[in-house]
Design brief:
This protein is an alpha/beta fold. The chain has 13 helices and 19 strands. A 6-stranded parallel beta sheet has the order 2-1-3-4-5-6, sandwiched between helices.
Length: about 475
Amino acid sequence: MAENDQQAFLEEYLEKGKHLVEDLQQKLGRKPTCSVITFGCQMNARDSEKLRGVLLAMGYEDLGENEEADFVVYNTCTVRDNANQRVYGRLGGLQGYKKKNPHMRIALCGCMMQEEEVIEKIKKSYRFVDLIFGTHNLYTFPRLVCDMLESDRMIVSIWKEEKGIIEDLPVSRKYPFKSGVNIMFGCNNFCSYCIVPYVRGRERSRDAKDIIREIETLSAGGVKEVMLLGQNVNSYGNDLQGGLSFPQLLQEVEKVEGIERIRFMSSHPKDLSDELIDVMANSSKICRHMHLAMQSGSTRILEKMNRRYTKEQYLGLVKKLRDRIPDIAITTDIIVGFPGEELSDVQETIDAVKTAAFDNAFTFIYSIRSNTPAAAMEQVPEEIKKKHFDMVLAAVQETARSMADRFTGRTMDVLAEQVNEQDSSLLTGRLSNNTTVHFPGDPSLIGQILPVKLTECKGFYYLGERV
């Protein structure tokens, strides 16, 4: 879709949506309310900001995560089966709210909706859902909302593949001082356990000029921190003729005045270059945090996972990062119980955890995802999975504790993000390395980057005091 046609499309349906919401407001005798509830990753969270932005532009009032709203949108995840089960469980409660409110509408979108068996199950068992759409046509949401408001039937709009990248959807951000920025969509890696390439499509990089333009606009609006988002940001630009590489893009983002912090995720180890490590080491803006998914410490299992690196190669990357950036925090993902995994493989993973000395690790029991190669492999019994998971988790916790307090006593910059949820006399913020810090402060300081002395480590967070 050409840029002018795209803008006209958005404006046409946003304007039509305003009139339909005004009609609904007259029926209700009050402003209609909406709630966009996010399941899953940072990419989903960013998509939800766009969905919320569209609804606010049409005239809905945002109720936050409140399932009694007049229009509830579930933006779903399907990385693990329990994510699907959470959605099904929550849908049961929504049916009760809808019986009480005949004007209530329910929409489902996101990765889970790209699975054919999910759509069939919803059509059969959750017929009270009004709108279903997927990951490839999020930009058509304004039109879909209009169609939904004019219809009494379930609307299903699932595209099998993407049709380019659409810019300039309205956005409603959670924080005025930080924002996610999509730099690419999709994934080409086809890890044998993962459904993401099937539901998010192939890699598509945004044009660097569009990314920089968006970040410049965010900066002009007061944003100090941006997080560059992609399924594998390290492969940014591979699909663009003569485009920038990811390290080169980072250097362009650094030039944007007003941006003080740059984060990014996710990174695939196979594409982590020396150039990227050098750019990070020489930057005063790029945050000292790398989330680098290991998934397993066994080379044999990594090969079955189609991860395309060995245990030794992964640990070599960790060593390079720590040598070049001594204060970096490295976090990871680990899957336990992958098909064919034996005790010796688990011991390899535990050895890798101890060698890498992760600051934190998100550890999961392998979950079968239908239509992936791993689903057809011989599965590990559940009781063995659980036993091995407990062993790996204990190692993760031990190494994380040993890394946790290494900054105690130092004064470091903290971005104040919100009033502490348990104690209103405290603010909660984050260090460059993504560690949480709680410290006394007034809400007027939220959004500022402040020097804070880290006085006490409490495991995965610090207590501090302003300097």
